[in-house]
UniProtKB/TrEMBL annotation:
The lineage of its organism: Bacteria, Bacillati, Bacillota, Bacilli, Bacillales. This is ABC transporter ATP-binding protein. It holds the Pfam family ABC_tran. CDD domains: ABC_DR_subfamily_A. It comes from the Bacteria. It comes from Halalkalibacter suaedae.
Length: 235
């Protein structure tokens, strides 16, 4: 289990950016991290990844476990081909006999014919699919994913969602930051909602419906009701 405890994060002690964000990611579940722009989602992700300084936080998971990060904006090395990106990833993780799996993933994400091309010339959606291949190659225990469906066409979205479900079945824990509430409603086991830079809810959609008193509403309806009421729900 990956346990996240962010008591406070701030660049200036008098102006906290995050407060009281505590949650965990269990093996074999998908968690949706949602909130309005400026709610603190990106800073939460950066803190989990250890990319922020000065925060009062603790992120724990087993030393031997692997965490993969898929950013909203793909990170591409301009001088490397698709295959060279994969080789670099395999080398960094000291993987052996990884080529058959790499080829399977290239075919799955429809990049097999592009393996010797330079992804700097790809569309954002194609670059994003390369990020998924690189994230999967070391068979991670946890994924931290920021807006995974942004810029993808419908067939690619279907492939990504099926991929995430397969990884969930394999036992990976997945934290997915997304504005696509219809996707979160269908595919997330639990939800973490941020507003005013803190946690205002965490639980299932059914529990969110009970909190908001909107038994017939969808996630968008309940999210809107909760944010407007500003009812803060803590563990």
């Amino acid at each position: 289990m990956l346990d996240v405890k962010i008591d406070q994060f701030s660049y200036n002690k008098n102006e906290p950016i995050l407060e009281n964000i505590h949650f965990n990611i269990k093996p074999g579940e998908i968690i949706g991290l949602i909130g309005q722009n400026g709610a603190g989602k990106s800073t939460t992700i950066k803190t989990i990844l250890g990319l922020t300084k000065g925060s009062e936080h603790l992120v724990t998971f087993k030393q031997e476990e692997v965490l993969s990060y898929i950013p909203e904006r793909p990170i591409i090395y301009e001088e490397l081909t698709v295959w060279e990106h994969i080789e670099l990833c395999a080398s960094a993780h000291q993987l052996t006999e990884w080529e058959p799996e790499a080829n399977r993933l290239l075919k799955l994400f429809r990049l097999y014919e592009k393996s010797q091309s330079y992804p700097k010339d790809f569309s954002k959606g194609m670059q994003q699919k390369l990020m998924f291949i690189l994230a999967y190659l070391p068979s991670p225990d946890y994924y931290i994913i920021d807006e995974p469906l942004m810029g993808l066409d419908p067939p690619s979205i279907k492939v990504i969602l099926e991929f995430l479900q397969a990884e969930k079945q394999r036992g990976a824990g997945i934290l997915m930051c997304t504005h696509a509430l219809d996707t979160a409603e269908k595919h997330c086991d639990r939800l973490i909602i941020l507003a005013d830079k803190t946690t205002i809810f965490q639980g299932t959609l059914q529990e969110l419906k009970e909190v908001t008193g909107n038994a017939d509403g969808d996630l968008l309806d309940c999210f809107t009701d909760l944010v407007q009421s500003k009812d803060v729900i803590y563990d």
